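User: For my dataset I need records formatted as: sequence, then C-alpha cells, nothing else. Please produce one.
Assistant:
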Amino acid sequence: MWRNVRLILFVTIAMVSCSEQNLLEVEEMHSWRYLEYLHAKSSNPEKAFFTGMQVWRDKIFINIPRLYDNIPITFGWIPRFENAPTFDQPIRPFPDYSWQDAEGRGQCRGFVSTFRSRIDRCNRIWTIDSGKINALGSTPPLNPRVPCPPRILGFDLETGHFVKSVAVPNEVINNMTTFTYLSVEFVPGGDCDDMYIYLSDTLGWGLVVYDVKRNSFWRHEHNAFNPDPSKVWSSINGERFNMGDGLIGSTVATLNGERVFIFHPYARTTLFYVPLRFINDPTVKHLPVRPLMEQSSQGIPLATDRHNTVYMSMITETNVLRWNPSRFGPQPVLVAEDNKRFQVVADFSFDGDEVWLASNRLQGVINDSYFKNATNLRIMRLRKKRTGH
C-alpha cells in the first residue's frame, strides 16, 4: 500500500499550485527590532530571537532559546491585540520570572533554554527545554554550558498551574542532543494523559518519543533524520547562511485513513513520512520511512490544522504552502509569499481557521547582520482576503 502512496504523492514543491483565490491576506500583528522584556534588559539584544510561538485565547506564547548569554526570558508571552499592530511590545515571563533562571536557582526547577511549545486539546502547554546555554556564543562554538538535562515541562493554561516536568533520560540522548521541535498526538478515545510527545533531536540526529501515560521514553534513528552535507547552505534574498541541522520540523496528519508522522531535517530538501504506529512502538528497530515530496529549498516548521491540512514554509522562496490531497489536490498550494516579512518562518499556530506564523530573520543572527534600525522579528496572521479592497 505504501509503495502506491509514494507514487501518488512524490511531487515537487517547486510545482506548487497557485491561484488568486487560494492566496491569504498577511496581517502583521506584532513586530520588534530587537526583543524587549518586561522589567528586564539584555546586554546583547541582537543575539536574542524567538523560534517558537503559540496562540491561545488572548495570549501569544513565545520561546526564545538562550543560544547566547544574557537573555532574561526564554519562555514568555504577550497579550494578543486585535485592533492595531504593536511594535516592540515587552515580553512577559511565563509563568513568572522565578521560572526563568534554572541555572541560578539550582535543582533544575525552572527553564534553561526553550525552543518551541505546543498546546494540546486539554488546554495544556508543553515546552521542550534543551538544558543548554550559550551554544553559539561559546568558544569554540557548540560548546555550551549544560546546567540541566533536557526536559519536557507542562502547564495548565486554564489555571496557570504547573503540571509536569520530566527529564529526558540519558539512555535516549547523546553528547550532541539538542531538542528544538516537538509535536503531540493523543490516543483516539483516550483521556488527557493518553498522549505522545515527539521530540526532534536536531543536532543529535534522532527522534525521541515520550509516552505520557506510561512515563516512558524511546529513541528512533534513521538516515532520513540526518542532514545532507550538500544542503547546509541556504539563501534568502541573496544572503547566504550556513546551517547543517538535522531533524527539525514535524507534524502528525492522516494519510489514506492512517495517522502518519511527517518530518524533515533542516539541511535537506525532502519531506518524509512514516506510519505513526511504527513511531509509537518502542520495539521497532528499522522505521519504514518514505519520501513524501521534494521541497524547492530548506524549511523549518510543519503544522497540521483541524482540517488535516499541513502547512510548511520554504526558506529561499519566503512563502507559506498548504497541502491536503483530499481538499486541494496532490500538489502543495501557495497561500502567501512575502520576501520581506517571511524571513525566516520559524513556527506556525492555529486559532480556529486562522493561521499564525512567526518569523525571525535567522540569517541575520547567524551572519551578524540583524537590522539596526528596522524590523527583524514578526508575528503575523493569515486570513481570507477581505472584499471591497
